[in-house]
Records
---
Amino acid sequence: MAKHNQAHLPRRIPKSQGGLPISIKEQMEYYMGAKLLEVGVNPKEPFFSWSCEEEGDEQVWTYSAYWGELKEEKLREKAAKQAAKAQATGKAAIASVSAPEPPQAENPEPPKRKFWNLFG
């Protein structure tokens, strides 16, 4: 049996709403975490993305999660798109150099999580 490496949650919203309401976005993020736990994936591990397609007088918003090999593939695709966009706008794309991290306090306060605090 093949292992799962992606999960998707679609939601139809009337165009008249003018986009995805925050409450629905938060609900979808919460349910995605539950779905990931259901298939045995740590909700902090995947690469998440949003997409929107228009169908008639509705928008279909999809929240997607990718992990494992597919996560790496999606991250490479995203980096390639960002590099192409940076070149198109005339900016130099520096993919291999990252900025140094700022020094950390001795006992940093854990980040306040809005949704995943139930999972760890």
---
Amino acid sequence: MIRVTLFEIGSFLLPFVLFMIWRRLSSRAPDAGRMPTLRLAAAGAASAIVMMLVLIVLDANRAGHAGERYVPPQNVDGRIIPGHFVPADDDGDEDDGDGGGGGDDEPSTGGGADDPQ
């Protein structure tokens, strides 16, 4: 948890640190008025676009494919089993986490004694 928090704080502070570095370098330069702000802005925009593309690719690699069903994270015997994808037709050994047989998430096929058909 601390790692995630530090990463978020660092991500927030990074633009401010880069701006302070740029301001210090531009104040020491003899031609401070001619700093390449357009080049810096273009580099920042290109970096943002590359970052978005990388995040899209990473998200697409973790997403399920057609014919797969997502099984959410579960707590089994004190262990956390991360969420994962299984084939949609696999009724197999995956516990749906409700602790009983027959899941609540599957539609009823009828035929029960308490069905008001």
